[in-house]
Amino acid sequence: MAIPAETFFLSGEQETTLQQQIQQIVSEAILSGRCLAGEKMPSTRHLAEHLGVARITVTNAYTELVASEYLTSRGRSGFFVAETAPQRPILAITERRSSAQIDWARKISQKVSDALPIVRPANWRDYKFPFIYGQSDARLFDHRNWRACALKAVGRKDFDTLATDHYERDDPMLLEFILRQILPRRGITARPEEILITMGAQNALWMTAQLLLTQRRKAVMENPCYPGLRHILRQSRCTLDLVDVDQDGLPPERIPQDADVVYTTPSHHCPSNATMPLARRRALLDRAERDDFIIVEDDYEFEMSFLKSPSPALKSLDRSGSVVYMGSFSKSIFPGLRLGFIVAPEPFISEARALRSMVLRHPPSHMQRTTAYFLSLGHFDAQITRMARSYRARRALMEQSLRQHGLTPAAPETFGGSSFWMKAPDLVDTSKLAMDLRQHSVLIEPGEAFFAAGDESRSYYRLAYSSIASARIEEGVALIARVMEDHLGAPLPDRE
Amino acid sequence: MAIPAETFFLSGEQETTLQQQIQQIVSEAILSGRCLAGEKMPSTRHLAEHLGVARITVTNAYTELVASEYLTSRGRSGFFVAETAPQRPILAITERRSSAQIDWARKISQKVSDALPIVRPANWRDYKFPFIYGQSDARLFDHRNWRACALKAVGRKDFDTLATDHYERDDPMLLEFILRQILPRRGITARPEEILITMGAQNALWMTAQLLLTQRRKAVMENPCYPGLRHILRQSRCTLDLVDVDQDGLPPERIPQDADVVYTTPSHHCPSNATMPLARRRALLDRAERDDFIIVEDDYEFEMSFLKSPSPALKSLDRSGSVVYMGSFSKSIFPGLRLGFIVAPEPFISEARALRSMVLRHPPSHMQRTTAYFLSLGHFDAQITRMARSYRARRALMEQSLRQHGLTPAAPETFGGSSFWMKAPDLVDTSKLAMDLRQHSVLIEPGEAFFAAGDESRSYYRLAYSSIASARIEEGVALIARVMEDHLGAPLPDRE
């Protein structure tokens, strides 16, 4: 590939000649690794035109650079970066850069990287037994039809939709499908003005915190909970109260009276998968009305209720408009899609739309339209059915293997989902266990990340089966049990 | 299309029988417009299974609903929503909803919708003479190759890239191209750790405000400036100082000494298109170093410098690391893509990455990979060349028409770009002019939105030629001149 002339600029320094300046910028480009050995240099004519200098000046500079072995001349083919060109070690570049005088620790007013939850290694797909949560399984994904929908969405007919930044509104086709097909399955009726497309559930949660919380307000969070939410709420600097969940999820009677916003996962609590019974849902809504707080309902993974019919969303029972509901396609399509939605009263949605517009304008139109086609052509429903069938089989295998090897879930569940919330013997530190298991190519999620604090959290862990092949489950579970026994220094009590 | 059984839920109320509950949820679904006339109801067997009731209960409920004309029975084909089914007017639904007791004005802690800049009508493509800025022109876009790249990016080979939410890093292929091909054209050398992909320039600007500003810090903005930036800085609640630009852009000597962050568009000022000369750039960088402020350089539309070779970015002269640089593909590909990038010292980038991860995780992988292919296969360069050629021709036509009809640019320019910054006679209010021009199917951008305040701003306006066909330019300009003369009550002085 030829190096474009446009990548060279004169420094404009008065002390050096034009020819010297050209020699300097070319050698600098080679030393910095920007121009690689063997690449073709711009022709003398092109470079002279671009820099606005006489061609002979460039020719003289190139000749000098050949003499100093930065370039080679191949006759009529032109000039190339020499294979023997001098190289500056990467370190030197770093050094030059790090001599910057800016004190960034002082310049940065909002330090976000503190306590950023890290759940899995970037190369998790290289692990043989990835019991990790929330990633898509290429074996279950309807790749062919997704591809067909992507192609359709990039067609000429849809060009305006694709190209324009219509931040005032979302893709009407996607909205229509969510309103008419997705929300009714959760028992929710909504108007187009009551829904906003987001960059996944994470983005939706973040927006609620921005719009509803301040330093003087109080948020209530389930304990344990989704680590991404804790990160958001800590950054918002609001007062934060934790309420321990029980086997029915969040107990409404334990919510403090001065709560402003209550975050909850009633359909299946994250990470324990507990489902909140109807009576408790009504009690929660009554509390919200009486004590005037807003409920944020994260209805993630609602599609995966294959063990029994899903309970309708809390939002479907909401008469006073106190529930801000959110769903996501991350689990049912794939997380790299970054699409979710918020359903809430119009005054909230219009502010959320303004916030979204300021922060990022809108989720890319192409992703919205591709998803709209995938949903409306029926591929989504087929995909969910296929996933549910596969998860059901994997879950049965998991249950059998867990029992066989003496590993015990923390609580009974009835929902389905894609993971088990597990409890190890008290003496086991699952964070250490997880690190050791990596040596055996096993990935598990230690409980620590889900809890606010406290040592008792360290014996919990999550085992997901959404990314692991059925054929690997038994061997993986056996490895977990074996390494756990090493940690305990004793056999697991419940091993069959 | 059949209505899925999964969209019905029992209310669980004790006072009514199961059959009554079923009648109620079905009639409610029809009244609310969720189930439409002619649609097929779930079979009695399916609905009974889903609700966990006896089939006869559903059959009895359906029979009652037929009697009350909500449903019709078509023998073996099953039950359908009756064409004569009662309908509740939309208003009633709205009423029920708006009876909510929540006082959202009080609940919402951060009101973002105030002063949200509105630049163009949503249906701008329906206007015959759209002199509006920043939207893509379908006639110039290489749709065929973009489509091929989108298809390639959704291939099986790239599935992991597409599906995973790898928020730790950006698409390595896209990064590589930006580092090796885009940045060098701006004179910038950077390492992968010094760059972050963003959801367009808007998202990049927003992140700098989040990370660098607080209520106790001072931001400096050019006047006039990009309205989206003013919205962001006002929301950040920092102290805000405006510095009037002159024909060379931002004058460094007028920057207050206590500035913390200075926002600037040196390559061509927005909206006047002034280019900052080299000497002034050096003076600006010297000031930044002496007074310890950060410069945010918005290098939007740098590809469109077709009148002369572009000047290298301010960032390329930055020795102390005080410049946070941002670019975007919105103008050169299309704005609905929502992709841009920040180049800055590593400590800043790592915080920006953490912030992005918290707010939205990452720009969708598919958009990143499609763009990477479009760039690396050479389509991007071809596209820019084609756009520049077309813009050059349109610009010449514009200049000729403007001269002919007595409309005058506010300042001479040398860069290129895609718009003219115009000055009407002092008596003309361009906001009113713009509203009147809509009647003639002409869209212009009044100056008001670009200025902080002051009545003198009202005689400025922007005319962009990136979305208007060459053949329409002369007629559109003539219309602007005619309506302007109506406003003035006199002929324009400079008309040829």
Automatic annotation (TrEMBL), chains A, B:
Pfam families listed in its UniProt record: Aminotran_1_2 (PF00155), GntR (PF00392)
UniProtKB keywords: DNA-binding, Pyridoxal phosphate, Transcription, Transcription regulation
Domain of life of the organism encoding this protein: Bacteria
InterPro entries the UniProt entry points to: Aminotransferase_I/II_large (IPR004839), HTH_trans_reg/aminotransferase (IPR051446), PyrdxlP-dep_Trfase (IPR015424), PyrdxlP-dep_Trfase_major (IPR015421), Tscrpt_reg_HTH_GntR (IPR000524), WH-like_DNA-bd_sf (IPR036388), WH_DNA-bd_sf (IPR036390)
Alphabetical list of PROSITE patterns matching this protein: HTH_GNTR
Presence of keyword Transcription regulation: yes
Claim: Transcription regulation is one of the keywords in the record: yes
GO MF terms held by the record: DNA binding; DNA-binding transcription factor activity; pyridoxal phosphate binding
Family: In the C-terminal section; belongs to the class-I pyridoxal-phosphate-dependent aminotransferase family.
Name of this protein: HTH-type transcriptional regulator TauR
Annotated gene: tauR
